[in-house]
Amino acid sequence: MRPSMPTFRSLTRSECDALLARNHLGRLAFTFHDRLDVQPIHYAYEAGWLFGRTSEGAKLVTLAHDHWMAFEVDEVRGIFDWASVVVHGTFHRIDPEDSPRDQAVAARAVHLLREIVPETYTADDPTPFRTVLFRIAVGEMTGRVAVPAAAVAAEGPVPMADVPQRAAPQPISPPEPLRRFR
């Protein structure tokens, strides 16, 4: 007798949004010339934007040359029990000293990051060397889910929407259209 097979399917946009909203650690992938790099980074997701902070270094130098990047978040419970979202978009450094709009975006980013780490940008900040705020405009988003055969047989396909979610975020502004300049 052949063993039951797991079920694979694409996630809907709302399932992708929910997965990004309930997680706070992902991987940022970017390239420069012939080099590809992937780095873990914590983030907050709201209204089509990923917000985070980092420190000065090679990653920012590289992303200053080419803002196009990918971002991935996974929820893994087992080899055939997982969900994954991949975002393609553009990286934007936030300058809190710039225009009033940038100041408002920076304030919102700090607020969202403090929901994850309340000590962010305080005297008790666990990562005070991460002084650079950024946001990523979500251009394209895809997701996949694998459901183990036993779960499918017992209950039918498990909707990802059954996982608890945060309260709906308040939008700051929609992402601007993506344009690539060379």
Protein architecture, described:
With 182 residues, the chain is an alpha+beta fold. Helix content is 23%, strand content 38%. Strands 1, 2, 3, 4, 5, 6, 7 and 8 form an eight-stranded antiparallel sheet that branches. The longest helix has 17 residues, at 100-116. It starts with 6 loop residues before the first strand and ends in a 27-residue tail after the last helix.
List the helices and strands and how they pair.
Blueprint: E1 7-10, H1 13-22, E2 25-32, E3 35-42, E4 44-46, E5 49-54, H2 58-65, E6 68-78, E7 81-94, H3 100-116, E8 132-147, H4 149-155
Identify the notable features of this structure and list them briefly.
single chain; about 180 residues; alpha+beta; 8-stranded antiparallel sheet; 4 helices; globular; disordered C terminus
Question: Could you list the spans in which at least 5 consecutive residues all have pLDDT below 50?
Answer: 161-182
SS-based structural class? alpha+beta
User: Judging from the principal axes of the Cα atoms, what is the shape?
Assistant: globular
What is the mean pLDDT? 84
Supply the number of helical segments. 4
Largest sheet: 8 strands, antiparallel
Element order, helices and strands?
EHEEEEHEEHEH
The total of beta strands comes to: 8
Considering DSSP H and I runs of 4 or more, what fraction of the residues is helical?
Answer: 10-25%
Distance between the termini: 57 Å
Radius of gyration: 18 Å
Estimated share of beta-strand residues: 35-45%
Short summary:
By secondary structure, the chain is of the alpha+beta class. It has helices spanning 13-22, 58-65, 100-116, 149-155; strands at 7-10, 25-32, 35-42, 44-46, 49-54, 68-78, 81-94, 132-147.
